[in-house]
Amino acid sequence: MSAGAWAGRSLGERRVTYDERDAILYALAVGASAEHLDLVFEDHLRVLPTFGLTLAQWAPDALGSLGAFDTTTAVHGAQRLEVLRPLPRSGELRLVARVGAVWDKGAAAVFEVAVECDHFVATWSIFAPGCGGFGGERGSSGAPGDLADHEELAVPTFPTQAATYRLLGDRHHMHIDPAAARAAGQPRPFLHGLCTLGAIVLRVADHVGAHPADLGTLSGRFAAPVFPGEMLVARVDAGQVTRFDASVGERRVISNGQLSFS
To answer: What is the CB neighbour count within 10 angstroms for residue 164?
Structure first.
């Protein structure tokens, strides 16, 4: 079955439940401190919108399990999130997933997996080596945008961050097992891209004077891995829609980032 034949395929629906403990664990995993009381203390809790992405992780995993791509070599290429309404402190969500476009990059394919519920619409872009060449459209190049007018923000990560974040549902071995990381072409286990984005949202919200739970939209392309404990530098061009990228030294790790707050 060619990669292009997966376009439009339903991945079904799932009801997922969570409680306040899950939302607090997520906030801690992306770098919230004890001073962020309304992110880490149940008596004042506001749930970070990006937490919803952990509840929808089953959808791209399901596509891999169906054999659309090799799960040992495919990587998370980009992410989009549109927030429709705040997540409750705890509860049950009905999520519906499907394959959107499938782009032919020649030596690889990019599968878009869309997940919808009453609270958000999220789209994963999965870069799958060896699945291209089926004669489909190439899609956009994803070339980095210009951030000539920007400020720089330090975004720390911590050594146990990947080990903590994986407890929220993304348990791909490459984030914890050195052998699996090497099989994926990396020297050691690396941080989940969504964890990196979540950490940047916290830092940018603080910089622009917004509350991170008021996130409205988010998108970004994962350009290179982040290893737990590294210090990121985010270049931020703040406005009604804030554009950003992030690097570790000379290594660009997030490109084409955009976010907005309601």
So the answer is: 16
- What confidence tier does 152 reach under pLDDT thresholds 50, 70, 90? very high
DSSP string, 134-157: SS-------PPPP--S-EEEEEE-
Q: How many Cα atoms within 13 Å fall on the side-chain side of residue 220? A: 30
Whether this model's pTM surpasses 0.70? yes
CA atoms in the 13 A half-sphere facing the CB of 118: 9
- Which domains, from first to last, does the chain contain? 3-261 (3.10.129.10)
- Give me the DSSP letters along 171-214: --GGGT-HHHHHHTT-SS----HHHHHHHHHHHHHHHHT--GGG
Distance CA 157, CA 254 (A): 14
Determine the pLDDT at residue 143: 61
- The pair of structure tokens assigned to 91 is 């509860």
103, burial (CB in 10 Å: exposed 0-12, middle 13-18, buried 19+): buried
Q: Select from 191, 190, 206 the least CA-distant residue to 238.
A: 206
Contact 223, 192 (CB under 8 A): no
Strands across the sheet with 242-248, in order?
Answer: 10-18, 91-104, 108-116, 120-129, 75-83, 215-222, 251-261, 242-248, 231-237, 151-156
Residue from 19, 82, 30, 59 nearest 205 by CA = 30
Instruction: Give me the active site residues, please.
Output: 170, 175
What is the C-alpha to C-alpha distance for residues 220 and 259, in angstroms, rounded to an integer?
9
* Rounded Cα distance, 139 and 103, in Å: 6
